[in-house]
User: Fold these one by one.
Assistant:
Number 1:
Amino acid sequence: MAGEVSTDLERELGEMLEQERFEPPAEFRERALWSDPAVYDEAAADPEAWWLRQANELLDWEEAPSEGLDDSNPPFYRWFADGKINASANCLDRHVAAGIGDRVAYHWRGEEGEERDVTYAELLADTQRFANALKGLGVGKGDVVGIYLPMIPEVVVAMLACARIGAMHNVVFGGFSAEAVRERMEFSEAKALVTVDGARRKGKTAPIKQQVDEHLGVLGTLKTIVVVRHAGTDCPMQEGRDRFYDELLEAADPECLPEPMGAEDPLFILYTSGSTAKPKGILHTTGGYLTGVAATHRYVFDLKPESDVYWCAADVGWVTGHSYIVYGPLLNGATSVMWEGAPDYPSHGIWWELVDRYGVTILYTAPTAIRTFIKWGADIPAESDLSSLRLLGSVGEPINPKAWLWYHKVIGAERCPIVDTWWQTETGAIMITPLPGITATKPGSATTPFPGVAAEVVGEGDGEPVEQGQGLLILTRPWPSMLRTLYKEEERFVETYFSRFGKETYLVGDAARRDEDGYLWVIGRIDDVVNVSGHRLSTAEVESAIVAHEKVAEAAVIGQSDEQTGQAICAFVTLRGDTEHSEELVEGIRAVVAERIGKFARPKRTVWADELPKTRSGKIMRRLLRDIAEGRALGDVTTLRDPSVMEELEAKIGAYEDED
Ligand code: PRX
């Protein structure tokens, strides 16, 4: 990275690195929605009442809740339980009723330069029709609907149509394979799946519907597949099961009243990786989730819906997209940018052209993207006018101070505060973050919990709070947008998050450090979850894909530090019998992983191992593999069955490094 940054810029960033704190610019603070630190004290004095106030101020309830938290049965917390609300009515109807139906909800931009502005009124019209269409297909309250779509406005319509009738959406990221879709439809017993004829990616088109057909097989519960015609790809349609989205919309009744939902009725499921190969179905409910995302979206991004143009450059298929492309911005009546494509197509400058074209004021992205832009060079963003930007956000993985400073200087022209937001699929909304008009930031630290949220760092062994230093990150107080359970796996929910420190303490799964000012620095996962370009993956999931290859006997997967992607998948593989290793085999293994999970999970590096390091009882010691992959001295090896295995692997890793 260092070599790519021009020497002058490198020197300037080096000098900035000396500066430890960045105060909110006075001009920003003066106009910020929140500029008085008293908000933290107000929330801390009575968090429950404070959240109840947010719920009532930011949302439009059919029946307003009278109570905040019900903690009578931890860890099964309930929020605003006697309230009634509909998510789609809050995202759409109330804005149209308030006379802002003509406001653009999304400036959509297609890969080939197509533009479509979708207003709140248009979204509402399509959502009502699609909600009726779903009803007509037999989908009702409590049913699960799978959504496997690219970044097109129809994905929002599909999600909100589910919410309108009380069905739970189960969105699968477009980068997952059709096989991963099948698995998630099966686990959730989805009744319908909404997908697309084809998805465009960097000038090519993938035949999505055809791939879905090839993998889906017969799922007893899945009765309908709805196909959005987007790329013009020919696709087979199965009589009696498959329907075109546009035809359904046209035939549907235009009016569909929103179903009043209990605050604790489920809104959606989103599968994410845990320590085992089986993904976890994170379940979010309605009232608390909406409160959490509306409040954080408004105050973390200091959103002024009349004047801001907001762009969260994530994919709707991840939680960031759910909370900060769909629900948060729509609840707050924001105008967003939705970009169909990749950052490098049709050119390396496309993002900055979009910022310029739409006058983006708030940009929210991931460190991995920033590192890629650093590699491409500061002259590329310099070709566009970025002066509309006033606030920058980061999410998904720790941001290294160098990338933070580059973002601050090259993109934000030292004028825009940066909010480094820490949260998870499970937390639903941002938990640890600066408030841009209040908090002095330190590059690389997500700073302190959002008002009403309580986090601590505790010792790994004793669970005692660490005042200064490293330990495990925990959340010590329930918050409205927290997951309620793992879909159909209640025991796993309690076991994963609430067994280590009891039913009142949420175990995050990240290690963190607290500095002398009480600022939090998130370090990374403590479990077998890796973070590749902000994509969360379980090593066990990748291992089980690799061993599906006919020539593979065993595999151990670890996350290895990577300058570009944060972590990269490194696979140690032993082959069956006397199979010779070859480049072809490497590609074969990568292909199996792409097929079973998705291209983003393919190993970057494959190390052939005659044997894997194991304990006497036969457990693979991934810890030692991580040590050699990071070039560290080996940790405790006393439980290792055969120490010579490590010597051989170390020699191999060394050889790989010489090649690099
Ligand atoms: O390890 C943390 C990392 O991403 C994990 C959550 O992943 P996921 O559920 O996919 O959600 C990602 C987007 C919210 C966390 O356990 N992570 C997320 N944001 C940050 C982060 N690590 C450091 N700093 C962040 N800002």
Number 2:
Amino acid sequence: MRRIAISVAASTMTLSLAGCGVLNASGDSASASPTKGNDVTIGLLLPEKANTRYDDFDYPIIKKQVGSLTKGDGKVLYENADADAATQAKQMQQMIDEKVDVILVDAVDSHGIATSVKKAKDAGIPVIAYDRLAEGPIDAYISFDNELVGEVQGRSLIEAMGNIDTSTKIVMMNGSPTDPNAKQFKQGALSELNGKVTIAKSYDTKDWKPVNAQANMAEAISAIGASNIAGVYAANDGMAGGVIQALEAAGVTKLPPITGQDAELAAVQRILDGTQYMSIYKSYPQEAQAAAQMAVARVQGKNIQFDALTRDKVDSPTAKDIPAQLVAVTALTKANIKDTVVADQIYTISEICAGKYKAECSSAGLK
Ligand code: BGC
């Protein structure tokens, strides 16, 4: 799926044909909605609420960016499916019925959503897959390099555990099986972990829910014994929180290294006080702003701009050479909190250093 490099000849061809208005950016001849001005309506479908990124960052940043690209005339209709694929299909149908100009969808179930993507496409509404690669005839995809996310998590865990051999036991807490990102995170992590440690227990966590991760971790602890767990690969911060709760409930006082992803505020604070080892900082502004730019360019018929925003290419199980943008990621540890989430104004130092974290902040040089 990770196929970033494209030949110059191929990209030039797409650019020139799309530029002449012969083909749309995905290279097929089905026409997109006619060119619009600033009065665009963008449908935004986000997948769940148990992890904080969607309501805290993705939605507000997309909304703001659409506003600034359209001189305040553009609208974002936002729905969150709360981890329910059937709800998301209904929400998408509603957006089709309301004749939005373009849909950005972060799928609960990337396979299941294909029928809805096709319906939108048949109604002349372009669909851009946001963060998770939806199946079906999508026009473009915006995400991070998700296999790299897993590689960085796996490598960080190995480094943090230090003295290990192939009998060293770890637990893997992977994401939802309906999310293709979860599979990529896992693949990336396994490429670093296989052959170096024993994966004593591995779970695919239903709906990415922290409570489910907590229950799975409790089961892993009874099977393996808390003192035999040298590290935990948790695919994101919400689940890292559940894993920590299970370990603490089992009486563990010195926690093993635990990974995460998303740079949630609670995780940044846990990294500060050493409860969580690391997270992955993915620049939400970069992803969300690019998504807004792609959506607006698509409906305004700015094909050259759209192609410039989607120079990567990915394949889904149902479509080849999908125009894409994959944003880079950074490992977030205690050492670079200031250079990442603070520098990018994701959080202020006073938000991070509130209450009991004040002392940790001064020792980490966060002022
Ligand atoms: C996203 C992660 C997120 C997870 C749970 C994934 O598709 O890439 O950032 O933590 O879903 O919502």
